[in-house]
Write a structure and sequence with these properties.
alpha+beta; Immunoglobulin-like; 4-stranded antiparallel β-sheet
């Protein structure tokens, strides 16, 4: 009885082991079907629909034969030219699939082109050694991300969230502040103090080994300045600087005009004061022409008068006869001045009357004392 129980237990254990092995095998097979690149290490990456060049690490000679293989399938077979000056021939593939140096050109890539690319070079039938092969992984390109902003903590902080469509192989996040990457931030969200990002442009970038995309720039919406940063595409500070220069120029012009007006007013008041003083001093006005006339007389040279010699008649002593009359000689007249006008006699120098200009404003009459009139008695 005991031996039958033990045999059934061992049978159940074997069945369980076989089921576990079968499950593991199915999982491995499923993984290999879904991601064939997971079985190999990817040397290079490319995106579906894109282009890629597989480099040939060998200097190809015109006399050598070249063959490219994808996994185990030959995709290009290039034969050397048969005669000098002719072109090489292709038994598989075409001239558009290869560069002149032998590198392989891949266009309009598809996922089934993922795999190992291996070159083979033959010189006179002998294979060239040490040629490198490469495993190429082809992934779908990442999509352009979108950036969302939210104000938190009573608008003292702002939260940025980067969103993008998922792709096989996944992608990573990177944050850019004014085009400079933040090396310490690698997550999908970014939280910053509003005061630290007041005037900062923020972007998020998603990337993997095959491709990358960057979002449109955004700024924090939690704090808005009353003064815009740009007006008509020009920085506001340019307008502020230009306006300040215009205001300064106007201030200088106003100061210059005020100084000129004040100086002009001062000169006008001074002229009026001198005119009033001239009106209130008529005696001084009368003396001024006399002084000018005397000054002219002093400057005008007087003519020299000839000496008159009087002949005295000597009479004999004791002569008591009548006295002889002396002939009166006329006095010499002073010559006329050069200008033709006669010189006034110094004895009869009269004070010239001041010239009165009818155009000048007449001074007001001086106040006279009031005369006392006898009162008439009432009848």
């Amino acid at each position: 009885m005991e031996s039958g129980c033990s045999s059934s237990f061992q049978l159940n254990m074997m069945r369980m082991k076989m089921a576990a092995v079968t499950t593991v095998s199915l999982l491995l097979l499923l993984c290999s079907v879904i991601s064939p690149a997971s079985q190999e290490h990817c040397d290079k990456y490319a995106v579906t629909g894109g282009e890629f060049t597989v480099i040939l690490n060998h200097t190809l000679k015109p006399t050598e034969k070249l063959r490219w293989k994808h996994n185990t399938t030959t995709i290009l077979d290039r034969n050397p030219p048969k005669t000098a000056g002719s072109k090489p021939t292709y038994s598989k593939g075409s001239e558009s699939d290869i560069y002149q140096n032998g590198s392989l050109k891949l266009t309009n890539l598809k996922k089934n082109q993922t795999g190992t690319y291996q070159p083979e070079v033959f010189e006179d039938g002998t294979p060239v050694q040490n040629l490198k092969k490469m495993f190429l992984c082809i992934w779908d390109p990442v999509q352009k991300p979108s950036l969302k902003t939210d104000c938190v903590e009573a608008k003292s902080e702002v939260k940025f969230t980067c969103s993008a469509s998922k792709v096989p192989g996944g992608f990573n996040f990177e944050w850019l502040l004014n085009e400079k990457p933040l090396t310490s931030e690698k997550g999908q969200t970014l939280t910053k103090k509003v005061k630290d990002v007041k005037e900062v442009s923020i972007k998020c970038r998603v990337f993997n080994n095959a491709s990358s995309e960057t979002s449109e720039p955004v700024t924090q919406p939690c704090f808005k300045s009353l003064i815009p940063e740009k007006v008509l595409g020009v920085s506001i500070w340019i307008f502020v600087g230009g306006g300040g220069g215009v205001v300064l120029l106007l201030i200088i012009l106003v100061i210059v005009c005020c100084v000129k007006a004040r100086r002009k007013k001062h000169m006008r008041l001074k002229d009026e004061q001198e005119l009033r003083l001239g009106w209130t001093n008529p005696e001084q006005q009368q003396q001024q022409p006399q002084q000018q006339h005397q000054h002219r007389r002093q400057q005008t040279p007087l003519p020299e008068h000839p000496h008159h010699h009087h002949h005295h008649h000597q009479h004999q002593a004791g002569h008591t006869g009548p006295r002889q009359n002396r002939t009166r000689q006329p006095r010499p007249r002073a010559p006329d001045p050069p200008n033709g006008h006669p010189q006034p006699s110094p004895r009869r120098a009269q004070t010239p009357k001041p010239v009165v200009n009818d155009d000048d404003e007449q001074p007001p009459p001086l106040p006279q004392p009031r005369k006392k009139v006898p009162k008439t008695p009432r009848a």
